[in-house]
């Protein structure tokens, strides 16, 4: 099939590259010309494991192309995936202006039937607004459908997730839209991945409900971690003990410095607002947000307990990305922690395997904040090491070497990367989350 993807970010690129890998002809429309130029040269503007290979395969095979021209994109195929951003507005609701723009421009450009598919995360019933917008700007009699096909990929394993989904959710209104979506996903459903067909409103709601539920699991375990710290219990074993229960599951029970990223914070906010707009108080989610935002202060407290004061202390930071295997720093805890540490007078040497370029655009390097190219370089002469992201290369680091390089062997681990007994045996003063 021919497929159009509008928006060449994390979701659009992965969606386009994967659909091309599954045997379709794909045209990705991205409005930032520099991104398109880079992509045409076969360079990905983002880091995502496995994406470079798929882009190369698609570009060299001629099944994956890029353009800045939305009219060309819309008329390239019958199926137009909307993969643009839906960030938060100041009141917490989703800013749908990019989705509206795509609906409007699609209406003005289309010359024949189109199925517009919302892959962006949007509030329930956005499909009705998309439909109304297309009708308004179309001004001529061309049939179209609007479907919801929320995306559940995780950054860091996005390509794998797209090609091995726990489920595919498709919200459609008519048979034609349903048949197109079923056909498109056939290579995955034939391999046994479940496809749930719903109405569009239900599909839209499934996405916000899923992300909010996962954020709730994280805040829940973080609160239990606080309880562990005050009672002498061990959060890792509590999570393991809970996780064996199939009704609970072990995933997303990792205590730490809280959730971040481009999805959970904004989707929880949007879900609270969606409920509020229909007269419901989703107080549970407001508590999820509150617990999450308190993580930063709690981590700083831990650092201060370990170091007493931070003025002129040499601090190594491992990890800036909001999670491992990505260069994405949107809403990363590091964005709040680093300025707090700097305000208290710390002198920081930071290292992240992929996110330093993005981070150093927000916080320019200077005397108090240096970016180094190697994790061992970061800890040289440091009076403490703070771990903010659980990259595998940190878990595999030679910690004896780290101890020798540091001036003081103090580690404050915000992601429970190491085992306390092991760290103490190596001679570290080791602080972590929810473990005495
Ligand atoms: P992103 O910011 O990385 O990408 C959006 C892209 O769309 C940008 O490159 C932007 O330039 C482009 N764009 C905006 N308007 C355009 C237009 N009119 N024409 C062409 N291009 C346009 O965002 P993302 O992380 O890919 O997220 C996109 C959507 O998917 C959001 O709604 C998000 O909530 C949802 N989502 C994201 C993830 C994730 O892990 N990132 C997972 C599931 C769902």
TrEMBL record:
Binding-site list for NAD(+): 35, 86, 121, 155, 266, 330
GO biological process entries: polysaccharide biosynthetic process; UDP-glucuronate biosynthetic process
Source domain of life: Bacteria
Binding-site positions, substrate: 152-155, 207, 252-256, 260, 323
Domain UDP-glucose/GDP-mannose dehydrogenase C-terminal per the UniProt entry, residue ranges: 316-420
EC number: 1.1.1.22
Catalytic residues identified in the record: 263
SUPFAM superfamilies in the record: 6-phosphogluconate dehydrogenase C-terminal domain-like (SSF48179), NAD(P)-binding Rossmann-fold domains (SSF51735), UDP-glucose/GDP-mannose dehydrogenase C-terminal domain (SSF52413)
InterPro entries per the UniProt record, alphabetical: 6-PGluconate_DH-like_C_sf, NAD(P)-bd_dom_sf, UDP-Glc/GDP-Man, UDP-Glc/GDP-Man_DH_C, UDP-Glc/GDP-Man_DH_C_sf, UDP-Glc/GDP-Man_DH_dimer, UDP-Glc/GDP-Man_DH_N, UDPglc_DH_bac
Name of the top EC class for this enzyme: oxidoreductase
PANTHER family: UDP-GLUCOSE 6-DEHYDROGENASE TUAD
Family: Belongs to the UDP-glucose/GDP-mannose dehydrogenase family.
Name used for this protein in its record: UDP-glucose 6-dehydrogenase
């Amino acid at each position: 099939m021919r497929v159009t993807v509008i928006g060449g970010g994390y979701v659009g690129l992965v969606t386009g590259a994967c659909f091309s890998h599954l045997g379709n002809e794909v045209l990705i429309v991205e409005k930032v010309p520099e991104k398109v130029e880079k992509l045409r040269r076969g360079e990905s503007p983002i880091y995502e494991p496995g994406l470079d290979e798929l882009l190369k395969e698609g570009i060299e095979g001629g099944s994956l192309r890029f353009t800045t021209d939305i009219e060309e994109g819309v008329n390239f195929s019958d199926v137009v995936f909307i993969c643009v951003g839906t960030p938060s507005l100041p009141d917490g609701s989703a800013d749908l202006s990019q989705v509206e723009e795509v609906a409007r421009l699609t209406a003005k450009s289309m010359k024949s039937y189109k199925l517009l598919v919302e892959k962006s995360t949007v509030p329930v019933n956005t499909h009705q607004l998309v439909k109304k917008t297309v009708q308004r700007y179309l001004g001529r009699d061309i049939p179209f459908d609007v479907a919801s096909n929320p995306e559940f990929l995780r950054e860091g394993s996005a390509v794998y997730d797209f090609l091995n989904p726990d489920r595919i959710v498709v919200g459609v209104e008519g048979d034609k839209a349903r048949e197109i979506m079923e056909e498109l996903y056939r290579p995955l459903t034939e391999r046994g991945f479940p496809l749930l067909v719903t109405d569009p409103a239900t599909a839209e709601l499934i996405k916000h409900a899923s992300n909010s539920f996962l954020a709730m699991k994280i805040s829940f375990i973080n609160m239990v971690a606080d309880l562990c710290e005050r009672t002498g219990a061990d959060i890792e074993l509590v999570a393991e003990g809970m996780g064996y229960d199939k009704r609970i599951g072990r995933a997303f029970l990792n205590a730490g410095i809280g959730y971040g990223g481009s999805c959970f914070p904004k989707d929880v906010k949007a879900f609270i607002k969606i409920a509020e707009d229909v007269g419901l108080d989703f107080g549970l989610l407001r508590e999820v947000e509150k617990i999450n935002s308190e993580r930063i202060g709690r981590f700083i407290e831990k650092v201060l307990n370990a170091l007493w004061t931070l003025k002129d202390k040499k601090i190594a930071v491992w990890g800036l990305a909001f999670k491992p295997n990505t260069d994405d720093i949107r809403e990363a805890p590091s964005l709040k922690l680093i300025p707090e540490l700097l305000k208290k007078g710390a002198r920081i040497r930071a290292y992240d395997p992929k996110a330093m370029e993005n981070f150093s655009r927000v916080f320019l390097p200077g005397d108090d904040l240096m970016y180094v190219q190697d994790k061992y370089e970061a800890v040289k002469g440091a009076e403490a090491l703070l771990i903010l992201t659980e990259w595998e290369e940190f878990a595999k680091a030679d910690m004896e070497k780290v101890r020798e390089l540091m001036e003081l062997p103090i580690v404050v681990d915000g992601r429970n990367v190491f085992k306390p007994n092991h760290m103490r045996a190596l001679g570290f003063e080791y602080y972590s989350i929810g473990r005495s």
